[in-house]
Amino acid sequence: MAKLVYSMVSSLDGYVEAPDGGIGTGAEDEEVHTFVGDVFRSVGTYLYGRRMYETMVFWETVPQEADVPPHIRQYARDWQAAEKIVYSTTLESVSSAKTRIERTFDPDAVRALKAEAEHDLTVDGPNLAAQAIAAGLVDEYHLLVTTSVVGGGKRFFPDGVRLDLELVEQRTFDSGLIYARYRNC
């Protein structure tokens, strides 16, 4: 059975989106980007809400020319190779290959997908992740924590959730960003 992983860049105070949109720096540096690419290279399916898909679809169009850094070209190839499911009631069409739209998030369908999948899945975006967490579907949580405190916005974890997690991996980068991988106990 494949795992469902929830991963996002978060501010030090736990927000994935600040009121002004930004959450700090560190995630865009080459060392971090290469690490993230290596960690998620084996993902077979990305589960996105509309807004996260609209952000990530950039990777469908990254040129493969020599002037694009190798770690960016590799991440684009890996993203393009994976399946994508976009949960949206408003999106009319997708602009990437291997992508389909689902109108509602169905926990039973995701359970079946996990049971059948040969590669792990990710759920990306705090709103969609909140639904997966509430349904007990998330197996691992990967946080990339910046050095910024933003004081508000959209939180990594939804309100009202209680989880007991085990830290299974951690890494600190030269930029100050911290990676922490947790799994359910």
Automatic annotation (TrEMBL):
Residues 3-178 form the Bacterial bifunctional deaminase-reductase C-terminal domain. One of its GO terms (molecular function) is 5-amino-6-(5-phosphoribosylamino)uracil reductase activity. GO terms for biological process: riboflavin biosynthetic process. Pfam families: RibD_C. InterPro entries: DHFR-like_dom_sf, RibDG_C, Riboflavin_Biosynth_HTPR. Signal peptide: none annotated. It comes from the Bacteria. This is Dihydrofolate reductase.
